[in-house]
């Protein structure tokens, strides 16, 4: 994948009119730092559906990647958005 920058309105217009076989999808591994409110909205629903999710609660955490430290930790949060046929596993 190649990095690119889009205004959200432009991307939504693209999604509505995309006719190619494999349209582009957005993949952002840094969304939590750029838009923490989005992660907060997601965290409550995830806590209900996945009892193992700690959401930052160190006492109940099952985060083995945390042992690596933040500089060596692999990506673990993503935002993936795309139209039908985009190749992403999730569609909004």
In short, what is this structure?
By secondary structure, this protein is mainly alpha-helical.
How would you sum up this structure, described in words?
The longest helix is centred in the middle third of the chain and has 14 residues, at 36-49. The protein has helices at 8-17, 31-34, 36-49, and strands at residues 26-28, 79-81. The chain has a two-stranded antiparallel sheet. The protein is mainly alpha-helical and 92 residues long. It starts with 7 loop residues before the first helix and ends in an 11-residue tail after the last strand. It has three helices and two strands, in the order αβααβ. The model has no long low-confidence stretch (mean pLDDT 78).
Q: What's the helical proportion of residues? A: 25-40%
Instruction: Tell me the strand percentage band.
Output: 5-15%
Distance between the termini: 20 Å
Largest sheet: 2 strands, antiparallel
- Indicate the low-confidence ranges by residue numbers: none
Question: For the CA atoms, what is the radius of gyration?
Answer: 16 Å
Strand order of the largest sheet: 1-2
Shape descriptor reads elongated
Secondary-structure element sequence? HEHHE
For the secondary structure, the number of strands is 2
Number of helices: 3
Structural class call reads mainly alpha
| Average of the residue pLDDT scores | 78
């Amino acid at each position: 994948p190649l990095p690119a920058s889009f205004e959200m309105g432009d991307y939504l217009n693209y999604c509505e009119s995309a006719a190619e076989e494999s349209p582009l999808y957005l993949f952002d591994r840094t969304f939590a730092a750029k838009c923490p409110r989005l992660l907060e909205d997601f965290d409550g629903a995830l806590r209900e559906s996945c009892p193992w999710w700690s959401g930052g609660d160190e006492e109940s955490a099952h985060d083995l990647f945390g042992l690596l430290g933040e500089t060596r930790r692999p990506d673990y949060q993503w935002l993936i958005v795309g139209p039908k046929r985009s190749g992403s596993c999730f569609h909004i």
